[in-house]
Amino acid sequence: MKNEEIKRAVQAQFGKNAEHYVQSKTHAKGSDLELMVEWMQPSEKWRALDIATGGGHVARTLAPHVSLIVATDLTRQMLMAASAANETALVHNVMYVQADAESLPFLDESFEIVTCRIAAHHFPDPAAFVREVSRVLSPSGLFLFIDNVSPEESSLSAFINELEKTRDPSHVRCLSVSEWRTLFEANGLIPQKQQERKKRFEFLPWVQRTSESSEQEAAVEKMLLDATGEQKEYLGLTTKEGRVKTHQIDEWMVLCKKRGGQEDDDNKA
To answer: Where would I find the Methyltransferase type domain in this sequence (predicted)?
Structure first.
């Protein structure tokens, strides 16, 4: 599938499920939202950019701590749903811009903070996304990235990504931590803090959030039930009476700092 076709699939998928993502516990809750603020220590003078804002949860969390946050998403319906949720929460310093994460419509060095949470596995060109993050981030600016990641072992990674794509055709690929690190460091984004955690999902809400049919849900469940022992162990699969109950995936959260600020120059001196 070509990049433009992938992006149309993403827009179709998220357009019709926009409200589900606003309400999704996986996206709306989580200690990572509070930890994000703790790690970045944002200033009220800073401008922030949230890429692929989805239900607007990051924008809503950051808004009280910055002067302005620009929330972008490829899908107009997602932006509308995020805007409505933020208005209900009385959050007003958010601007909404429909934009492609791989070609951002902003000038160089426009933001002190850039964030992207649980979205990058939908991007067909991760390298272009990371280049754009670095371009729009000010020197010594902070980039907070959170996404599902695949294991380093290639055959296990292939299975995890096939499973995700069977569940959600707009899924492109979960990269491994080492792949993301390579992209970040190549673009002057230096990891400062990181954490990995296991996220456990109840099968039905997880599969139904993106499914088109009961046949699709059955195909995903069959993949899990037919998985190898290694795959089931990695996923922490639990079953009851021959049906999948829960499974888990890896999530990586990392705070990067863009090389090139005054502090970096002082350290070289």
So the answer is: 49-145
Angle, helices 214-225 vs 154-167, to 10°: value is 160
Query: Which residues, 6+ apart, have CB-to-CB distance to 211 below 8 Å?
Result: 167, 217, 220
State which amino acid sits at residue 67: S
Give tens-digit pLDDT for 116-174. 999 999 999 999 999 999 999 999 999 999 999 999 999 999 999 999 999 998 899 99
The backbone torsions φ and ψ at residue 41, rounded to the nearest 5 degrees and listed phi first, read: 45, 60
* Structure-token match 């600016």, residue found: 141
Domains of the chain by residue range = 3-155+169-200+249-259
Cα separation, 13 vs 73, whole angstroms: 13
- Tokens 């934009």 label which residue? 99
Task: Answer yes or no: is pLDDT of 266 > 70.
Answer: no
Mean pLDDT of 182-187: 98
Torsions phi, psi for 22 (to 5 deg): -65, -40
Helix (H) or strand (E) holding 240, with range, is strand 238-240
CATH topology of domain 3-155+169-200+249-259: Rossmann fold (3.40.50)
CB–CB of 122/170 below 8 Å? Answer: yes
β pairing state of 47-51 and 111-117: parallel
